[in-house]
Amino acid sequence: MSKPLITISINSSIKEAIETMQAKNIRRLLIVDKGKMVGIITDKTYSEQ
What we know:
Elements: E1 7-9, H1 14-24, E2 28-33, E3 36-42, H2 43-47
Parallel strand pairs: 1-2
Antiparallel strand pairs: 2-3
């Protein structure tokens, strides 16, 4: 994973997540809610859709 960790809010859209991943050139993005990790999205998550 990249350092510092790149995160998005649980309220973010899939589109925002994909755009963030592409802009930051990363393959994994942590999803956080109130400062706690609640999930992860990967490049494979959306490429399979």
